[in-house]
């Protein structure tokens, strides 16, 4: 039930035969949208959240300035204000501390599980028991994937995928159900460990963003819904506005994967958050600083060997601080080529992945068993490729300048894996495939190794990870997109470095870094945050100019073809995300034209209980304008006037009915009467329904004074304002309702023309309701 919506019918009245067939997953047409939307404005949106199609509501980011709110703020002492500020910083610290601790747990587990698994496989290979080595590796990967998939499918479907698109939608004002619960957090942690340890082509970066957001949400509300701590000081955070700020701090959890605190803050600012301010910037930076300090402390402790096979901490780190980086004019050309390739391949990747996700949606609709089979099939295919493809590569002799201990190597780390080769030789494809994804990145990013990898191995590696990246994302396990894209981009970057070898001074490892950055910019369309993340990874400021050039070119080329991968996923899921820039054609239609729909339901300032109950039972609206008739304005109109007192929320009406806020006579209540019955904490509670309310026959004839519960300062626009302008205001302020007022006020006419909600401003819905509107050529955005 979204905002001011008409009562949603269970099924359309005149559904035709072909449309009924489309509901059957077996008959789903891949060219049709995943979700069928209502062709009328203000309809309840459906979105794919986890395994189910759910009704989506908006969040109340607007401050509800009713009499109780004003009284609460007036009565707060200086100590209480300081306590509120202190608690914000304390929660930001706890978010960073817990996110860093969980990131450490994930890294420790993945490194040890994968390390011991690979060491066992290597022992079989040394004994030339290749079949047993494959069976051991495939069996271990199968079991790890099975654990992750069963947890996701059976306990927390919303834990699948990265979670970043849903967080993006939440911070945009969309309430995505079950995204931040304790069960989701637990499954995300265990599922990430299992999926990454299973060698699947996915990363833990996206899940860490979701994990940080879950921690922030649970801290802000005092724990899980069923076991919530109701401490008095937590009352400050019983609102969507403060919870949004906490989740923004948690969404910078990507820094836990890359040890990039500034990059994590900029990622939250550039990619995830819709609303930002300086105070939030400071707290987010504080959270990321705590995360990085926790990681650094654990890594220092683990250097002494107390953490098993923790190694370098499972964190991608490509330190080139000691490498001399020199640029010539000719180096701009390969940099530009990498940028163009990144934009083209990134947009192509987005398009193909879009089609794959549509196919997966058809499969996933068939039930839990099909989800499990899909995940396990991908696991088996991945194991076959990772173990079998290195046999296609030729053994290469070790460089005589290298020490015997570094070439060849038989452990889980090292740049020169012996695999099936004789002593003194190594298998370059096994070096990239028979290892963890993090170590594969370190190996392909390695510097001063111009002759380590040949063209055939890099082409096979690139082709394989393109295929694995497309088929792995979308299965029922927690997964991130960062690492697969880095692996693909680094492969073609290194290939270009081989081709440019005689003509450039840039190391092939640096070409691999630029290739990874270009593909990420071409697919995710991020620039500033990616630039800083790679700067913090490489630890070398000299790479900054060419990295900036590559990122800008990649994003520009990619934008010419399709949206970013996260925007595509948002559209597939049906989440009503408001874009930063309205469409150009939205300037040619006014909000008054959108308001041509059933008349808005208004309530009187002092309303009869019967009328309130009927309105709540017969509508699904979440906000109602409150008007007072016969008011004498300051100008002294002799006939009186109709005053718009404000807007009251559905939850507050239900609260008034539950607390029996009734009067025998029609009168306005005193301030002391309101304070005795309600508190600001009561107004923050959500989730109650009209079915839970019991009202007797005698109470039906009594009255309710709605004035103390009404938001007296709702945002309003005149009916002549353009949709484009209204959309910018709606998004920037984070509104749920926007009242449309008439341009001319006639006597006896309602002071409210209509109410704008999120669904009214979604381009798809407007075009469906107004077929005569056409998008401008080239689908350009209005600025």
Q: What would you say this structure looks like, in words?
A:
- This protein has 783 residues and is mainly α.
- The chain is built from 29 helices and 14 strands.
- The strands form six sheets. Strands 7-9-10 form a three-stranded mixed sheet.
- The longest helix is centred in the N-terminal third of the chain and has 49 residues, at 78-126.
- Residues 1-29, 36-43 and 775-783 have low confidence and may be disordered.
Short structural description:
The chain contains 29 helices and 14 strands. β1 (46-49) and β2 form a beta hairpin.
What is the approximate shape?
Answer: elongated
Percent strand equals: 5-15%
Question: N-to-C terminal Cα separation, in Å?
Answer: 32 Å
State Rg: 29 Å
Portion of residues in helices?
A: 40-55%
Number of strands: 14
Spans of at least 5 consecutive residues with low confidence? 1-29, 36-43, 775-783
The DSSP helix count reads: 29
Give the strand order, joined by hyphens, for the main sheet: 7-9-10
Overall mean pLDDT stands at: 83
**How would a textbook summarize the main sheet?**
3 strands, mixed
Helix-and-strand structural type: mainly alpha
Oligomer classification: single chain
């Amino acid at each position: 039930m979204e905002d001011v919506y008409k009562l949603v019918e269970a099924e359309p009245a005149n559904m035709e035969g072909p449309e009924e067939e489309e509901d059957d997953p077996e008959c789903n047409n891949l060219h049709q949208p995943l979700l069928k939307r209502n062709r009328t404005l203000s309809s309840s949106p459906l979105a794919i959240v986890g395994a189910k199609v759910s009704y989506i509501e908006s969040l109340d980011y607007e401050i509800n300035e009713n009499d109780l709110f004003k009284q609460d703020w007036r009565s707060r002492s200086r100590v209480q204000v300081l306590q509120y500020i202190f608690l914000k910083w304390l929660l930001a610290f706890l978010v960073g501390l817990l996110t860093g601790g969980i990131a450490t747990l994930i890294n420790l587990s993945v490194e040890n599980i994968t390390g011991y698994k690979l060491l066992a496989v290597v022992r079989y290979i040394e004994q030339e028991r290749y079949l047993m080595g494959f069976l051991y590796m495939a069996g271990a990967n199968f079991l790890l994937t099975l654990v992750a998939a069963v947890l996701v499918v059976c306990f927390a479907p919303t834990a699948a995928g990265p979670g970043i698109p849903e967080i993006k939608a939440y911070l945009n004002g969309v309430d995505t159900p079950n995204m931040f619960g304790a069960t989701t957090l637990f499954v995300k942690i265990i599922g990430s460990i299992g999926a990454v340890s299973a060698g699947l082509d996915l990363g833990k970066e996206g899940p860490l963003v979701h994990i940080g957001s879950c921690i922030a949400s649970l801290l802000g509300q005092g724990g899980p819904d069923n076991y919530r701590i109701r401490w008095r000081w937590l009352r400050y955070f019983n609102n969507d506005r403060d919870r949004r700020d906490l989740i923004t701090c948690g969404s910078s959890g990507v820094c836990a994967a890359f040890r990039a605190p500034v990059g994590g803050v900029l990622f939250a600012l550039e990619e995830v958050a819709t609303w930002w301010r300086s105070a939030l910037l400071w707290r987010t930076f504080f959270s990321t600083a705590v995360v990085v300090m926790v990681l650094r402390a654990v890594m220092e402790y683990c250097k002494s060997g107390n953490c098993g096979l923790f190694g370098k901490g499972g964190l991608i780190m490509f330190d080139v601080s000691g490498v001399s980086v020199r640029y010539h004019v000719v180096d701009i050309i390969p940099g530009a080529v990498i940028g163009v390739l990144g934009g083209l391949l990134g947009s192509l990747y987005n398009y193909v992945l879009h089609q794959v996700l549509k196919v997966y949606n058809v499969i996933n609709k068939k039930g839990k068993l099909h989800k499990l089979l899909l995940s396990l099939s991908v696991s088996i295919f991945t194991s076959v490729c990772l173990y079998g493809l290195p046999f296609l590569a030729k053994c290469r002799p070790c460089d005589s300048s290298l020490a015997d201990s570094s070439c060849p190597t038989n452990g889980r780390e090292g740049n020169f894996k012996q695999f099936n080769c004789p002593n003194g030789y190594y298998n370059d494809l096994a070096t990239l495939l028979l290892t963890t994804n993090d170590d594969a990145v370190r190996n392909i990013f390695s510097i001063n190794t111009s002759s380590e990898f040949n063209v055939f191995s890099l082409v096979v590696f690139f082709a394989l990870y393109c295929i694995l990246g497309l088929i792995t994302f979308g299965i029922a396990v927690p997964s991130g997109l960062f690492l697969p894209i880095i692996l693909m981009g680094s492969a073609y970057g290194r290939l270009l470095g081989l081709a440019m070898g005689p003509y450039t001074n840039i190391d092939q490892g640096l070409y691999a870094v630029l290739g990874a950055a270009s593909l990420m910019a071409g697919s995710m369309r991020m620039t500033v945050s990616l630039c800083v993340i790679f700067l913090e990874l490489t630890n070398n400021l000299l790479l900054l100019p060419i990295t900036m050039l590559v990122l800008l070119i990649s994003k520009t080329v990619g934008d010419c073809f399709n949206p970013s991968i996260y925007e595509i996923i948002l559209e597939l899921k049906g989440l009503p995300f408001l874009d930063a820039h309205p469409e150009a054609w939205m300037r040619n239609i006014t909000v008054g034209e959108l308001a041509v729909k059933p008349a808005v339901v208004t309530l009187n300032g002092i309303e009869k209980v019967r009328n309130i109950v009927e309105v709540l039972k017969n509508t699904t609206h979440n906000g109602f304008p409150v008007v007072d008739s016969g008011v004498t304005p300051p100008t002294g109109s002799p006939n009186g006037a109709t005053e718009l007192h404000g807007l009251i929320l559905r939850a507050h009406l239900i609260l008034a009915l539950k607390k029996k806020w009734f009067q025998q006579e029609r009168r306005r209540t005193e301030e002391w009467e309101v304070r005795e019955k309600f508190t600001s904490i009561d107004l923050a509670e959500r989730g109650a329904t009209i079915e839970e309310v019991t009202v007797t026959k005698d109470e039906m004839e009594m009255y309710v004074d709605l004035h103390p519960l009404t938001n007296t300062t709702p945002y309003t626009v005149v009916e002549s304002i353009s949709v484009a302008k209204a959309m910018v205001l709606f998004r920037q302020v984070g509104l749920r309702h926007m009242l449309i007022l008439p341009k001319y006020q006639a006597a006896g006419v309602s002071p409210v023309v209509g109410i704008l909600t999120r669904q009214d401003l979604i381009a798809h819905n407007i075009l469906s309701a107004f077929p005569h509107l056409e998008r401008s050529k080239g689908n350009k955005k209005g600025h």
